């Protein structure tokens, strides 16, 4: 007999016990032409139903619910468990075998630590869709993405309005959009079927309902999400000063990050601090949304001209941002809903202490004219530019002396170190030296006296010239370094580094687009499909469609 289509499903919420029609009994299975219903506990009810889409599309969709209401004029059939074939009392209506799907989902990193019983519930709530050739699965920027997809059969093409050609072609075994399950991000591209294809999708609400039941798994998923977001940013090129740091170290660094996904329009993201501010400075990376940096007070300087800056996905900010803009009392606030990765700026500084070359490049780019001298001396190109600048002023003796001391400090052989010390004395320290440096008389005389008293077998310590080197460094920082930072030798190099407050026109614009796209589809994963019984799955869909279109509207489960 034909069954009515009227039914209401109330979404499941933790702690909410479901309600059924009073005629139904515990552990019974309610079957209609529209809904297959079964449950496993007092708090889990699964509804599976079949509907028609455009063309040849057939949809099998499931959802977890807390209550089912049968309206008047609805007709339904109760199948007590004892009437079902042996071995199918709990799964006869679940013909797309959970065993196949559990194995499939278990190979996806975000689901790897879910217990099998929870994966089973997740597969019950998954959606299988068969799309005809050339049909659009979703469009770019059509709304917030709340699904991830697994390509079970066929292939799909990914395109974007920002690209002249296809971004990717995803074959059977690809999964994409897993970020959508955990953060609120829009569709970054358009995906359409190149041929008839079968996709499995999982809704964000379904996934989070399971995470609520598995706190340990939620922690693991959150850890993996932070790792993925950071590595996607580095691989996209939007964090250029982190790409020289080993990926293993960056994975450990990702554990220091926090995901802020409840940032609303108007929320303050970062404030410029003064020396009395008790709060820790933050490093902020924009995953999604827009951030505006503004101030009504700009310091007097020839470097930096903007009072307001807009940052979009792939951009970042920190205490250095306000310095770069030459502002005081600056603040950054969300211009829209946003998703951010944040951490203490102290953690970033500690990371750069481990990798001084990366830290030097970041310090120069972030602080511009306010960068420190040590960073310039660690930067290969700027070190050469600094020497060239000093040569043009005929004042390179201090820099050459510093470089000689750096070499002297790492000499391990005592006799070689003594030879090097005599060379330094004759070239830079004694009064008739060709490159005599301007040392105070006390320091100069002390060095000469100690060297004269040193016996032929005496040991020349690696720290012997430290006091003199510190004095020369102080002179360079005070005198030649400020002049160098105002020269084109310095400015031309800084302009080629990351202009993080204004990427318009820079090579990093494309990197930002690449990062945005990578959150959805540009880096699809792959799962092993060889054990999937796709023919049997397709047959099940065809039988469901036949049952839907059949004269009786109802068939006995096989």
Automatic annotation (TrEMBL):
Domain (Cyclic nucleotide-binding) ranges: 110-218
InterPro entries on file: cNMP-bd_CS (IPR018488), cNMP-bd_dom (IPR000595), cNMP-bd_dom_sf (IPR018490), RGS (IPR016137), RGS_sf (IPR036305), RGS_subdomain_2 (IPR044926), RmlC-like_jellyroll (IPR014710)
Domain RGS: 372-494
SUPFAM superfamilies reported for this sequence: cAMP-binding domain-like, Regulator of G-protein signaling, RGS
PROSITE patterns in UniProt: CNMP_BINDING_2 (PS00889), CNMP_BINDING_3 (PS50042), RGS (PS50132)
Protein name as it appears in the record: Cyclic nucleotide-binding-like
Naturally occurring in which organism (per UniProt): Phytophthora cactorum
Lineage: Eukaryota, Sar, Stramenopiles, Oomycota, Peronosporomycetes
